[in-house]
Amino acid sequence: MTTAMTLAQAQQEVIDEFAMFSDWQDRYEHLIELGKDLPMIAPEKKTEENIVRGCQSRVWLNAEQKNGLVHFTADSDAMITKGLVALLVRVLNDRTPEEILNTPLTFIDTIGLREHLSPNRSNGLVAMLDQMKRYAVAYSAKL
Amino acid sequence: MTTKADTAIKKTYDVEEIRAQFPILKELVHGKPLVYFDNAATSQKPRRVIKAESTYYATINANVHRGVHTLSTLATEAQEAARETVRSHINAKHAHEVIFTSGTTASINLAAQSLGQLLLKKGDEVLISGMEHHANIVPWQLVCERYGAVLKVIPISDSGEWDLGETPGQARSDVFTEKTRILAISHVSNTLGTINPVKELVAEAKKRGIITLVDGAQAIAHLPLDVQDLGCDLYTFSGHKCYAPTGIGVLYGREELLERMPPWQGGGEMIDVVTFEKTTYAKLPFKFEAGTPHIAGIIGLGEAIRWMQDYDLGAMAAHEYTLLEHATKELLNIDGLRIIGTAQEKVGVISFVVDPSSNSASGVHHYDLGTLLDQQGIAVRTGHHCTQPLMERFGVSGTTRASFAPFNTIAEIDAMVAATKKAVKMLR
User: Fold this and answer.
1) Domain span at residue B201?
2) pLDDT per residue over A27-84, tens digit each?
3) Do residue B25 and residue B79 come from a single domain?
4) A32 CB near a chain B CB, below 8 Å?
5) Are the beta carbons of B375 and A32 separated by less than 8 Å?
6) Claim: this prediction has a pTM higher than 0.95
7) Using CB atoms within 10 A of its CB, is residue A123 exposed (0-12), middle (13-18) or buried (19+)?
8) ipTM of the assembly?
9) Do A79 and B427 touch (CB under 8 A)?
10) Quick one: which of A106, B269, B289, B348 is 20 to 30 A from B9 by CA?
């Protein structure tokens, strides 16, 4: 879906998309829809090991390396969390570890979901992002 | 014993008059008026309490019990006046039975560490209940592990009450064994709102020579309290849950027991004479108050209690009960909504989950619901509420919990119910 775009472009696309919404309800409804559209993670990947710690809901995040690119799949038992992880997957999926590690992520801040970055939030958006970056670091070391 | 507070003329209960005293209620959240239903996590503070704390810093800030100078004397007097206020509020026999701590968690840790050293031997038992907050589980696990004692748990019924046997509310003798040394139980459940029949169980424990601790963290803001009537050896609560600042709490202990208990933390203030060979300890309550106390918090706690004493606690409780009944009735109209904790005796706490139903294949995750309620200006708590074993007992990963205070209104409940309906519709 986004392979033709750079990470920065994919990020901008999300920002533009969310700019259409003027109120919280539309924003969250869209987020919930994005979660519903998240491709299914393979059931065998929903392991204890792949659970992201620090989330009030359960989040599974799996990463594999394909042709030098990091491929993410994810799921959550909460819909908003699933929407958030779907956004991260959409922006970061199928990119080189370097692109993941070197592009500053600003979109969450600018699309009206800033509160999800607060350390108080137990949805673990920060934890999910950290986990994705750790995978990128691990794969970049392997190259 | 009749306290001064009992005989004083109480203010008439007027929710608007009470609301006007809480500055935070004027705040907007996401552009909407704040509806604060997370009072069981921490209560909001009336202006009087905020002012008492800042006035202390602005006018008499000094260390207590140390200086000969005027400010130190004034600070010490203010702190000890607050201790007397707490004593009268809980009807302890002596002010020195009131020990200031940083909160209920610290109070229970102090009690567990000290009692463990005093009482526990290999094979002894500590009895708690299945609805305890982690703060009344983990400290006992730590001492049980150290002394080879065993932690036993009173089971919880489907309605969220102690399951003591065939006769509800009656302490069946077999919850205790010959090896039970300590009973540590909550007065009111933070997750379910259940008011436990502590007096009856404490009486049963006392007959068997068992030391009793009651965790009153959730009771202090809701129930009138008389520790002598309750009969427990130890009682704990936090200031921040009864309109006082954070970081201050109380461990009440019966004088005879406190005299026998060894100190837990060492340092300044708690000593009599220190030499490198041997230290003798200060008298109660200072034996258990090492270091400089949270003086401003203590003064704030005194003011918060005086604020509560200005009102008829019964009228406040009746108001909260009206809110609870209304919320229960209205929430149950939501398809698939199930209330966790349906005891007869409850404070204004309502915990619920939204299950799949005949009309909808999917339930609603508490995290999603809490997030969408927040967007509508409504503050509730979601998750396990620091009672993971209780969540497991009810087979849920967490709940959404609304907890009420005297400043909450029926209109706010209606706003929450409408917001919940909207959120559930978005999430299904």
Assistant:
1) 51-309
2) 999 999 999 999 889 999 999 999 987 777 889 999 999 999 999 999 999 999 999 9
3) no
4) yes
5) no
6) no
7) buried
8) 0.89
9) yes
10) B348
